[in-house]
Amino acid sequence: MFSKPARTLAKGPDNAEAPARKAIACSLIAENVSLDGDLKSDGDVQLDGAVRGDLHVAHLTLGETGLVEGSIVAEAVEVRGRVTGTISAKAVRLYATARVDGDITHAQIAIDAGAHFAGRSVKLALPVQESLSLATAAE
Q1: pTM score, two decimals?
Q2: Backbone angles phi, psi at 134, to 5 degrees
Q3: pLDDT tens digit string along 97-115?
């Protein structure tokens, strides 16, 4: 009645049981923080300060006071502040207060009215799966 529930384990790439992925807290870089150098994180980052360098994160939320001078690589990027440099992400959203000067490589992009974007929008090339032709299947 009062026993602990059994912990479930996820299957790894070799189909062996592996511990479930631990949730990672969102990192906050506050408005009064300035960072000169690259930033890497496996988790989510809320950036309200300034970063002069490259960012490689899972999910970036750039606040209205946020500034990035460098390239951004992420799964998803939400921009409310200023970016001078390239953005490469599966999903990109530029809010009305966003100002982006640089190219954006994306699978999905949303740009709100009022956002400033000076650069190229390039569709992310997804790997093409080979299909088995009927001629090959008949042989």
Answers
A1: 0.73
A2: -65, -35
A3: 999 999 999 999 999 999 9
